[in-house]
Task: inverse folding
């Protein structure tokens, strides 16, 4: 949550920062701000609302427009820090937006995270006469740094380091000080920070998206590390003052991946990217002719995978639903008991972990605070951790013993789509790998499953053909206040995910339920006004689903059914039907997800909702 970006070098800092904020806006969008340090003068601009509002506000500054100021003052080294916020401490407002300044205005700071002991520090500072203008924990940190800098008479980087020794919590911070205009300080625990290394210039951001336009050389800071970028040089050390060698990597992210490419929203672009993203997540990992799966990322730890007596999947949100879907095929094909847990629940219990347990953490961003904390807990208790992440170099991917990336490419829309199906693809490969190594699937069966898997991108293309029918359903139900989504077996996690998509972006209340549970509660909601969406493909649960559809029909409910192409029986019962191509049970998620995502998208679009940035949500939830 919250995006931070910083720049120091000879470019016009304002342009780099505002563009960086636009790229990071998926992380939070209730307020934004920029501080530019220019010849010892801070220009600070902050606005409640989205980055576009901040941009308008700054660009209407007349003679005070930052690029004009630079020109006028003849500034050589240009630096600035910026922030896009998802509020935790203090409501979204201009005053609570970052950057936060210290009392004297000497120090500016942006912060992603939470300082847990900010109240005791604030009390201590108030006794010393410090005044606070905002409700944020960040302003407390700005003043703590100022207090230490003044009293200990140390440089800004040392003041930051000493201040951080007093802080409890999670953070990625960027700090500028008026009297050291050639320096920018960055530090992190828990929240991500990436440094871009250019030619005599440096970029810092919450992820690599604001950086790749300028350089492909990046450094991912580790927890408890800080970097001082000073006079064109970079020094990394820990907050305990141990020097570290910078490890510079090359990022493969491409700029086109960060643009909408002609689509009105990132979400729609990402839905239509799925044939590619599923294909990329499998590429080089399967050989259908030979019936083999090769998974480089887990090769060295494969014994742990094969010895596992139990698999524990930890995740949040949509990634949790991917885990739930995987439970069905893991248990069916590997016979290993598989439990799926919300990371946020797992970590606050006292979970029992055995030596032969394998934990699989699923996270698109690789930064979700609860998943990260749950993984740390499981690791401490001796479990082997495999990560499935989309963001290369992310915290979970680094903390895991082994893992696999989903090669979905950057997912910008807050509602997850292509990451979900890519996660299912990678989980399926892991499952097939175990089943084949344990000789639970013979060659013939492996060849058959892998051949079907190889064809999935084409089947997903075919699922797009139902878009016209989906648009009609969207039009009909755009003003509905409630929805029930029902599925059984492999369809159940998809019903949960479909309902989540609708809730997230259209703000319609939607419940996902196991269709067998319908008679234990949800059926009481069914009346003439209640649309019930069934995942009614012709799989192993088909007959039972048909019975459930009849039960809804008998109570005058309106049925929308996702059916297998050509299935006239389900079509007759349903009021509206949406066809998907036939697949085996285990592959249902790839095809059935498409109409679920498109239906949510088109309803939200007809309701005029802010699809890529739904209210109150953020893509990367780095608070617990
Ligand atoms: C947020 C996002 C969801 C996502 C969840 C887990 O709530 O809005 O789309 O599924 O976090 O994120 P992760 O990055 O761990 O998959």
Result:
């Amino acid at each position: 949550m919250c995006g931070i970006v910083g720049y120091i070098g000879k470019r016009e800092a304002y342009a780099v920062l505002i563009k960086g904020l636009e790229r990071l806006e998926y992380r939070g969008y209730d307020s934004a701000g920029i501080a530019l340090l220019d010849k010892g003068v801070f220009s600070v601009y902050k606005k409640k609302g989205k980055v576009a509002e901040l941009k308008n506000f700054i660009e209407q500054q007349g003679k005070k427009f930052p690029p004009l100021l630079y020109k006028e003052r003849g500034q050589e080294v240009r630096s600035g820090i910026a922030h896009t916020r998802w509020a935790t401490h203090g409501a979204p407002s201009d005053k609570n937006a970052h950057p936060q300044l210290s009392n004297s205005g000497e120090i500016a700071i942006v912060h992603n995270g939470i300082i847990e002991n900010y109240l005791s520090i604030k009390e201590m500072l108030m006794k010393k006469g410090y005044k606070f203008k905002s409700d944020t924990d960040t302003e407390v940190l700005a003043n703590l740094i100022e207090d230490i800098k003044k009293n200990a008479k140390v440089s800004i980087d040392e003041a930051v380091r000493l201040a951080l020794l007093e802080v409890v919590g999670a953070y990625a911070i960027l700090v500028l000080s008026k009297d050291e205009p050639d320096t920018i300080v960055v530090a992190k625990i828990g929240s991500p920070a990436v440094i871009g290394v250019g030619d005599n210039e440096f970029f810092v951001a919450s992820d690599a998206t604001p950086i790749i336009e300028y350089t492909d050389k990046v450094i991912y800071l580790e927890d408890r590390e800080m970097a001082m970028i000073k006079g064109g040089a970079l020094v990394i050390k820990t907050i305990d003052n141990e020097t570290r060698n910078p490890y510079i990597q090359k990022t493969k992210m491409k700029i086109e991946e960060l643009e909408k490419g002609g689509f009105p929203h990132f979400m729609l672009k990402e839905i239509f990217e799925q044939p590619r993203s599923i294909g990329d997540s499998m590429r080089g990992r399967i050989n259908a002719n030979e019936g083999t799966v090769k998974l480089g990322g887990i090769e060295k730890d494969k014994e742990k995978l094969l010895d596992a007596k139990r698999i524990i999947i930890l995740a949040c949100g949509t990634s949790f639903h991917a885990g739930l879907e995987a439970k069905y095929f893991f248990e069916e094909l590997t016979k290993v008991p598989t439990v799926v847990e919300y990371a946020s629940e797992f970590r606050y219990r006292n979970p029992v972990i055995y030596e032969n347990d394998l934990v699989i953490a699923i996270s698109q961003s690789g930064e979700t605070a609860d998943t990260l904390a749950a993984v740390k807990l499981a690791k401490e208790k001796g479990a082997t951790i495999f990560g499935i992440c989309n963001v290369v170099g992310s915290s979970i991917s680094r903390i895991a013993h082994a893992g696999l990336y989903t090669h979905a490419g950057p997912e910008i829309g807050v509602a997850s789509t292509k990451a979900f199906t890519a996660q299912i693809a990678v989980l399926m490969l892991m499952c097939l790998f175990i089943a084949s190594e344990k000789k639970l699937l013979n060659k013939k069966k492996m060849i058959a499953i892998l051949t079907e898997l190889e064809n999935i991108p084409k089947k997903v293309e075919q699922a797009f053909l139902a878009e016209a029918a989906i648009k009609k359903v969207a039009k009909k139900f755009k003003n509905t206040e409630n929805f029930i989504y029902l599925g059984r077996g492999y369809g159940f996690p998809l019903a949960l995910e479909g309902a989540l998509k609708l809730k997230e972006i259209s703000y319609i209340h939607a419940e996902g339920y196991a269709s067998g549970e319908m008679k234990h509660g949800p059926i009481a909601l069914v009346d003439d006004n209640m649309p019930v969406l069934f995942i009614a493909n012709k799989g192993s649960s088909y007959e039972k689903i048909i019975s459930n559809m009849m039960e809804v029909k008998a109570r005058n409910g309106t049925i929308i059914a996702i059916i297998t192409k050509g299935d006239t029986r389900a079509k007759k019962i349903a009021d509206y039907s949406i066809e998907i191509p036939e697949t085996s049970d285990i592959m249902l998620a790839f095809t059935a997800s498409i109409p679920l995502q498109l239906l949510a998208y088109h309803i939200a679009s007809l309701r005029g909702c802010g699809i890529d940035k739904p209210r109150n949500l953020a893509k990367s939830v780095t608070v617990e």
